[in-house]
Design goal:
Layout (H helix, E strand, L loop, with lengths): L8 E5 L4 H12 L4 E4 L15 H5 L2 E7 L9 H14 L4 E7 L3 H11 L4 E7 L5 H5 L1 H5 L2 E4 L11 H13 L6 E4 L8 H12 L4 E4 L63 H5 L2
Parallel strand pairs: 1-2, 1-3, 3-4, 4-5, 5-7, 6-8
Helix pairs in contact: 1-7, 3-4
Length: 279
């Protein structure tokens, strides 16, 4: 059953960057009323300033929650909890949260939302393909990926696929109460990702592992609005074939995207990392 809440606006937090921008574009293409917000929009939205929450929620019936800068940070889960309860008190029940995989802080935020009384959906993922060309582009141009991630392999996922799942969750009541953990088509270490980048852009890129306390080059990004580099085991073993149909093409392996408690349903192959980086 598909439901388009035409009576209200869909709030998209962090609606002008990476996933939020893609979610906004898809909702607008469906003819939905959308309010993308950030610290630079009117109305303004700031996770750290509760005075901005009420104006952003005016006339809203559903919301996509993307926390900035990172759900793993101390106090982030409690801020998301406070906002969810604030939204519920104003009649906004439909909440979709973008979460991380294998992060204690993100998992705490998930539990808060699950216990809030909202009609919730949680979409969890780790490292985005777009981190390399939207956040680390300058680093890649210098031929270096310097990150404290060791040799952990990560199933990089494309932001377009994430946005497809989020929009489906906002559009269909069957996704209420579901936790989807998304992965890409294959596991890659950052060293292997650097090799893929080299092949895609036609010049060498090498991975330089950093310690957690070491300094990045002056041209490297200091904060990433996507997920952090993989540092802990994920919960992807709970996933199976894709649950939400999308228009993604170009890869022979399916995304993982379903709650452990529900049967798999047909989906389409995810976008490949190399297709994202070859521009």
């Amino acid at each position: 059953m598909t439901s388009h809440p035409s009576e209200g606006i869909t709030l998209v937090i962090c609606g002008r960057v990476k996933t939020g921008r893609r979610v906004t574009d898809r909702l607008l293409a469906q003819g939905r009323r959308v309010r993308p917000v950030s610290r630079s929009t009117d109305p303004r939205f700031d996770w750290q300033d509760a005075r901005t929450w009420a104006p952003a929620l005016e006339g809203v019936s559903a919301a996509f929650l993307a926390y900035f800068p990172d759900l793993a940070l101390p106090g982030a889960a409690e801020t998301v909890d406070a906002f969810a309860r604030f939204a519920l008190a104003r009649g906004v029940r439909r909440l979709v949260l973008l979460s991380g995989r294998g992060e204690a802080g993100a998992q705490r935020a998930e539990r808060y939302l699950q216990n809030s009384g909202a009609d919730w959906t949680i979409v969890g993922c780790a490292f985005f393909n777009q981190n390399f060309d939207e956040n680390f582009a300058e680093s890649v141009r210098h031929g270096v990926l310097g990150m404290p991630a060791g040799d952990t392999a990560e199933p990089f996922v494309d932001a377009d696929d994430i946005a497809d799942v989020i929009v489906a969750a906002l559009s269909d009541v069957r996704h209420i109460g579901a936790l989807y953990e998304l992965t890409g088509p294959r596991l890659l270490t950052l060293a292997e990702a650097a090799q893929e980048l080299s092949a895609a852009i036609g010049r060498p890129v090498r991975y330089v592992p950093l310690s957690a306390g070491s300094s990045a080059p002056s041209w490297a990004p200091t904060e990433c609005p996507g997920r952090r580099p993989p540092t802990s085991p994920s919960r992807s073993a709970r996933c199976s074939t894709a649950a939400v149909p999308t228009s993604a093409t170009g890869c022979s392996v399916r995304s993982a995207a379903r709650p452990a408690s529900s049967p798999p349903t047909p989906g389409t192959p995810p976008r490949r990392a190399c297709g994202t980086w070859r521009r």
